């Protein structure tokens, strides 16, 4: 019996997200190709990544260097278009591994890390693109450069350290309306002439697209729930 309905939940959830991205772009008068979906596969096995790859999803996000090293290098030979974004807080002593495994590092958020990444890139001869993570809600427990320090930090990363910063990333406070945070990040990127805006997750990516997101990071809505962090 012919049946075009995807039976794999990852395939059908990916299709739903793509449809919602296209609709959000239409509402915002944006080209559907102007938003890149970063499929956040953290905690999910390599088989889940392969299921997404088989549906044409090529861009992934992981928040831990070690987990990324365990999943992605093995997939690259078969999938040369695969791109990996590191989206989690990064320790300076992991900078070298991060530069080796990632195509984009979205969590540049302090001067020490800028120096560590500069040195790691020089040693590895590899230059992943970088996004500066801004703590738009100035939450003490959260990663990201403080709002008031962000402009100077972005300038220093590019001009003093010569780092390949292409954009900004944020994670708005959990309970807040994310729109003003997305708008703030978009304004900051425009001031610095930065093209990439990584903002919006499973619960708020449509609002992020309305505010100009070029990259949305979606995990749960594609791969399902994750175990609560220990
Ligand atoms: C886990 C994670 C996401 C994905 O969150 P979902 O709500 O599962 O879509 C996005 N961005 C960052 C930085 C994350 O750590």
TrEMBL record:
Annotated Alanine racemase N-terminal domain residues: 28-227
The keyword Lyase belongs to this UniProt entry's keyword annotation: no
Pfam families, A to Z: Ala_racemase_N
Residue positions, PTM N6-(pyridoxal phosphate)lysine: 42
Keywords assigned: Pyridoxal phosphate
Highest taxon in the source lineage: Bacteria
Family the UniProt entry places it in: Belongs to the pyridoxal phosphate-binding protein YggS/PROSC family.
Function: Pyridoxal 5'-phosphate (PLP)-binding protein, which is involved in PLP homeostasis.
Name used for this protein in its record: Pyridoxal phosphate homeostasis protein
